[in-house]
Amino acid sequence: MRLWHITPSGWAGLIFAALAFFLFPALAGNLWLSVFISTGCFTIAVAGVSFMYARLGMVSLTQVGLMGLGGWVMLRLNHAYGLPFEVNLILAALVTMVCGWIMALPAMRMRGLYLALVTLMAAGGLEILFATYQFPNGGDGFWGVKTGSAAPFTRPALATTPEAYLRYVVVIALLCFLLIEAHRRMKPGRAWAMIRRSEAAAMAAGVNVTFYKTWAFGIAGLLAGVAGGLLAGSLGLLDDATFRASESVLIFALAVVGGARYWYGALIAATLYRILPALLNNWGVDADLSFVIFGAGLLHAVITAPDGIAGQIAGALKARKAAKGRAS
Amino acid sequence: MIEVNDVTVRFGGVVALNAVQASFSQPVSGIIGPNGAGKTTLMNVLSGFVQVHSGSVICQGVNLLSMAPHKRAKWGLRRSFQKEEIANDLTVLENVLVQADHVPGNTADKLAQVHDLLAFVGMADKTDTPGRSLNSFERRLTDIAKCMAGQPRLVMFDEPAGGLSVDETQRLGDLILQVHDRTGAQVLVIDHDVELISRICSETLVLDFGKRIAFGPTRDVLADPKVKSAYLGTEEV
Questions:
Q1: What does the mean pLDDT of chain A come to?
Q2: B45 and B100 together in one domain
Q3: Which one, of A324, A275, A322, A267, lies nearest residue A31 by Cα?
Q4: Contacts of B102 in chain A (CB under 8 A)
Q5: Is residue B95 part of a domain?
Q6: Is residue B173 in a domain?
Q7: How many domains does one find in chain B?
Q8: How confident is the model at residue B237 (pLDDT cuts 50, 70, 90)?
Q9: Do B117 and B9 have their domain in common?
Q10: For the segment A216-236, what is each residue's pLDDT rounded down to a tens digit?
Q11: Does the distance separating the beta carbons of A209 and B85 come in below 8 Å?
Q12: According to its record, how does it sit in the membrane (chain A) (predicted)?
């Protein structure tokens, strides 16, 4: 058991994060900066849903809804109290984590499709709330909504420009992946692996299955809250159309296509979700074509690549290494 | 001492265990019986996976049935399953450590114990091997180490020799015989392999159709005509 060991995949992640930190802000224009920031936020959200699926085999179809909740709290706190961005972000993440726990409690009695349906219903409920009450924009009252232009949003002191904000998002995303990896390597990760193997075997090993499943929901909720808070910070306001229940389903499907067991699976999923439509638009092609590509990707993953595109990349690298080993 | 008092389990109209009574006092005891006799159901009652209709189980003075399954593990109950439940994406060491994770103690001591147990079962050179790369005997050995992790008080093996060769079964039996000496835990073994049971178990309970048909010293039990007829049937003239 090596807690501090950096795997080749870990090194690749650190190198990619360094490249994203230094190169992307330097090379991208304003439009692409916005796309990359959004991709970074959704990478964190997908990482949450992938983590639940890969570690526990649980399907959560409410991740984008929880992301909206994190964004709502972020906007509300920003307009109400003028606290530092980081404090608002932590509070938004904690609120969504608690909501993840609350949602988990009734869902704990269900498994598989039924669990997915419960989470989808929660996403539907959040969608209705967002559509009815909208997102805070500096108005009065609990909901904080006013007509006319939105009040200014305070970005973090460290990242007031879009370039710096992209760097900020990259660092937070890296911290989120480290949080997941730390869990995977420690007691919770072992408990989750046993639960996924067999709940009976996990209980026989002393694992409190309800507690650890709830914990996993909390982590996924926390990541959704961070993602939503960062997205709110990027745009300064949010639109309810971003957080529809169907988006949660799409995010989960893309997590499967990308590869839920790998960190770069989440990145691939977010890239497909955010960068591919932007590229299609850039090329003058209808961005809705991306849905056709997603569908084809999902069929491909379900039929031939259960570990998604990331699993195929990992498999190809392993095969190449094995071939090299045989040759030498 | 494990006291099973009038335990009855019903699944709808089926009586899986019918007022089963036994007091296991030996370091290694066995439970045998034909398929469907209720052996695994009794083990599931002790583990907390099956609710009893009536009866009680007192183990070392503690009423086991009042505890949730994971709390029984914290108390010291260990069990293996018919199919070795080894997580494929955990290493051998982690598979054993997961059992020690949920008992009090510091991590360094737990790690030292896990390494010691893996050396005992002969898996010291496989500590970093992922579960998916193990063969069925290695998975079984890992399972035995797992059952000995923490401070076990009662260790139950459900058909541990299933699918193993004669040599592997021999080695497995040797290891099970040492579990009590190394941990102080009482051991219960379910198996169809009567030879294994007669070699390692001092006393044996025989179940048939959910009822106790014999209980006592293994040699006497195996010589009992009722046990022979349960296994071999009766001759019709």
A1: 92
A2: no
A3: A275
A4: 205-208
A5: yes
A6: no
A7: 2
A8: low
A9: no
A10: 999 999 999 999 999 999 988
A11: no
A12: Multi-pass membrane protein
Which residues 197-226 of B are in CB contact (within 8 Å) with A? Answer: none
CB within 8 A of A204, min separation 6: which ones?
A: B47, B69, B73, B77, B78, B79, B81, B85
Structure tokens at B26: 């030996």
- Assigned token pair, B85: 């439940």
Range B33-44 average pLDDT? 92
**Per-residue model confidence as pLDDT tens digits over B123-169:** 999 999 999 999 999 999 999 999 999 999 999 999 998 888 999 99
- What residue numbers bound the domain in which B94 lies? 83-151
- Write out pLDDT tens, residues B179-214: 999 999 999 999 888 889 999 999 999 999 999 999
Residues B9 and B71 in one domain: yes
- Model pTM? 0.89
Considering only CB atoms, A204 lies closest to which of B69, B101, B103, namely: B69
Asked if residue A41 lies in contact with residue A63, where contact means CB atoms within 8 angstroms, the answer is: no
Q: Which of A1, A196, A203 sits opposite B69 (nearest CB)?
A: A203
Residues B194-198: contacts with CB under 8 Å, at least 24 apart: B194/B32, B194/B222, B194/B231, B196/B161, B196/B169, B196/B172, B197/B30, B197/B32, B198/B222
Condensed to tens digits (0 to 9), the pLDDT of residues B120-135 reads 999 999 999 999 999 9
Looking at the structure, do residues B47 and B157 belong to the same domain, yes or no? Answer: yes
Complex ipTM, two decimals? 0.90
In chain A, what are the domains?
Answer: 2-327 (1.10.3470)
> What are A253's two structure tokens?
């499907």
Domain check: are B70 and B157 in the same one? yes
Whether B2 and B71 map to the same domain: the answer is: yes
Q: Is residue B196 part of a domain?
A: yes
Q: Do A1 and B91 touch (CB under 8 A)?
A: yes
pLDDT at A34: 94
- B138 shares its domain with B160: no
Tell me whether B98 touches chain A (CB under 8 Å): yes
- Considering CB atoms only, which of A187, A193, A208 is closest to B70? A208
Lateral strand order in the sheet of B2-11: B14-24, B2-11, B54-59, B62-63
Q: Do B85 and A204 touch (CB under 8 A)?
A: yes
